[in-house]
Fold this sequence. Notes:
The structure is a single chain. The protein is globular and about 45 Å long. The chain has helices at 3-8, 11-46, 97-109, 129-141, 158-164, 180-186, 195-208, 229-235, 268-277, 289-294, 319-322, 324-328, 335-340; strands at 69-73, 114-118, 146-151, 170-174, 212-219, 240-244, 284-287, 298-299, 304-307, 314-318. Strand 9 and strand 10 (314-318) form a beta hairpin. The relative contact order is 0.12. Mean pLDDT is 85; it is low at 1-9 and 22-60. It has 13 helices and ten strands. The protein is of the alpha/beta class.
Amino acid sequence: MRLATMRALPQPLALLLCFLRAHLSALWLCLAPFSCRLWGVLLAARSPPKAEEGAGEPGGTKAPPVPTSVNYHFTRQCNYRCGFCFHTAKTSFVLPLEEAKRGLAMLKQAGMEKINFSGGEPFLHERGEFVGKLVQFCKQELKLPSVSIVSNGSMIRERWFKRYGEYLDILAVSCDSFDEEVNVLIGRGQGNKNHIENLKRLQKWCRDYAVAFKLNSVINRFNVDEDMNEQIKALNPIRWKVFQCLLIEGENTGEDALREAERFVITDEDFERFLDRHREISCLVPESNQKMRDSYLILDEYMRFLNCRNGRKEPSKSMLDVGVQHAIKFSGFDEKMFLNRGGKYVWSKADMKLEW
């Protein structure tokens, strides 16, 4: 009550009000600590606790990994039918070129140093022009230290090297056997074309156009007993990646899969036996199933990160829609495993001590 109003009251009533006001103020001071605690309890009971940043998402509150090295499977279409393929032609979708470039620029801004284009078969879409333009963009505009391609090699022509070779650091060619009959059994046969002869031609073009040559082999039931020492030494790749045949639900195994890879699977002991037979090959880089599942950042044709930890490819939202940092949280990527398997190496041809 204001002081002017108090003065207008009869004196006895004014004194009584002053007395009551003083005692109520004293009572409030005594009860204030308890009332505040009681109010806090009531609010806590009424409202759910505030979740920590990142709670409920893979990685919890940890900062998202840096996309140092990314594998972009921009197409699922392929001209081969390898029985163990774990990125099969379930769609024919390919992003428009400018959208793909936008995503690659986002990855560069987030810390990407190396991009690897894969498929499917990357030289199938527009017969190599699409991947050529992406390679040129990544090296010329984004100035990435390393740009590479994984291909089965069957559709690459020398004119592609003449136009885009200067922008490519590494070409990795898939070769699972040096026995043409085994290649046919695996699914790499293409009529009268010889996979091995084509491989030698690609190795020469890489040398002629200053592109580092690399080999990838998937070890499976049909090639596990093969001795490849002599042929690998003759081809002299900068790296020979040797993978253990891997089952991925929905891709090469399961009811909705396009392949039945069970007949290609080998044991860990079989894989170790193959590695031991080739232990003198200095460029050999072995990758078991566990390393493959956890240590790759894989983007699909929609630019979604694929999490393979649970034995299938579980996609994030597209990084084009939600950004790199949000999408990459769902990738299942193990950065420590990536480094332990030798994922970061001298991957720019400018830093390689190679004789062209």
